Amino acid sequence: MTRWWLLAGLIVLAVLFALLLGVRTVTLLELWRAVTAPDPLDPSHVTVLWIRLPRLAAGLVAGAALGMAGTVMAALTRNPLADPGILGINAGAAFAVVLGALILGQADAGTVAALAFPGAGIAALAVFALGGGLRGDAGPVRLTLAGAALNALLLSLVSAIVLVRGETLDVLRFWIAGSLSVAAERPIGAMSLTAGLGALVALAAAPRLELLMLGGALSRGLGVRPGRVQALALAAVTLLTGAAVAIAGPIAFLGLMVPPLARRIAGNVLRLELVAAAGLGASILLLADTLGRLVLPPAEIRAGIMTALVGGPVFVVIARRLRPGATT
Amino acid sequence: MKGAIVLLAVLLVASAASILIGEVPLGLGDLWQGMIGGGGPGALTVRVIRAPRAAVALGAGAALGLSGAAFQTLLRNPLAAPDLLGFTSGAGLAILLSLTLGLTLPLPLVGAAGGLATAVLVAVLAHRQGRGLVPITVILVGIGTGFTISAFGTLLMTRLPGAEAAEAQRWLTGSLAARDWGQAMQVWCVGGALAALLALQGRALDLLSLGDDLAAGLGLRVGRARLGVAATGVGLAAAGVAVAGPVPFVALMAGPLGARLTGARGVRGRLMAAAGAGAAVTLLADLASRVALPGIQLPIGVFTGVLGAPYLLWRLSREMEKGEL
Fold first, then answer.
1. Which end of chain B is more exposed for a tag (fewer CB within 10 A), N or C?
2. Chain segment B74-83, per-residue pLDDT in tens
């Protein structure tokens, strides 16, 4: 129980830091006034309400969604390296959105953003199948390499499209590594609803997913239909990842860092792990974003780079721990 | 033998095509005049723009291909290429760093230092007590190290002003735009010297490809031989990266592709085939990146990424069928 309280404290801290810290530091008192009696002429109030609040919402939703997606994917593939970013699912969503913008133009931003879902879905299915998941033996190496290949392919195509359209470097960076800095321009409302739906699907599928993790024969004996559970889990990953990418771009490594910590908090109950993963994902992404605003002012390091700086070493640590014989 | 002739023919045709085809199409006559006579409309295009670019592509591709084949032989795994292991990213980061800081050091040297540091880091991190280096762990650790290095590269770019950042982004994707004869000379000389060095270690590579125990039994000092081959391989990769940027997947594809094309069996034959295949892939990808979309030059790395990723997936499914992974 103490650990849940710690998580709650972490979330509160992350939210407060996200609202208060940055190029302009806002005091708690100013924050209170901005919320209770907003003054459109006070720069602190404007910063909080029009810049930091949308950014906070984007970070909360995208972080929670990516943390949950990573946890579902790790459970589904029984693989600690199953982050949607590493597996190319983020890149699939980003590619679909960028391609949609190329074909449809900027006419309808909502429709274009919704393309993240088919993109994420196809990529999730592809990497699962290519990694050997359909045969029930998606080893970490296989899955990671399939994901690396898919990532390289899709991100190459993303850069090609962005360069062809003559967009700025910032646009390219957003679609390659993700960021919360343009949060106000992204369709946060609709995507939050979809992410919520994905979370519900994940929570509903969790108990059966746990049984599936026991292995094929045993889980079938307990009445689980592997195909159906896998489909549900992939649907949840698609909804969660698609929503996160539509809001914040393809931010990687959250799904790698979050599940081991979530297990520490929640024990071995997947449903509780998912809840913890949502809180952890949201607070880690917010902290990464806030830190990125503080380290090199006035330049801003995008949240996706901050997560990669921490996530890369975490990946190496997990890869070292895998026992080659047992994992393939 | 037949295969080697095919590979040579491909290289010749690709070289000619990459000089003739482009924004200003040239005829064979223009090429001849530009090369020999020095006059005519094609001279500028041939001598200053396209020929050095093609020469850099050939040299860099060959160096990367050789490096890939050396590591694939060394670790006895077709996935163990310097690009997948993060070595080329390490070389690229070091070069980007020295350019950002405005240091005037020779780029291949800086790249080699970065590549070597990455290789040592990966080897140390992947080394497990009692088991030594397991190829699969090395590959995974290499991928993770590559992730971290790319993140640092992007971090570095945040500090650059807009135009320079765009240039750095192109460079980190791998690009052959606006190369000159100096760079061509550089990659050919450095790459040539290192290739000779690798050829001298042919017997050691031959023995290493039999496995460590057998190689040691046949009188090879395994540790030293491995170190020599790895250092040469990193040097070759750095020579390629210094002029073309960390072009992805060329090193991964070149070895198996060359062996398939030429049917070469011995280690030396396979190395030569890999150099040829790497050069051909780079040249053709560069040509494609120039002409695929009229008016726009994409960085070559975009194309080798699009070509190489399906290859990696195919390779993966092959390894899975064989039960190697």
1. N
2. 888 888 889 8
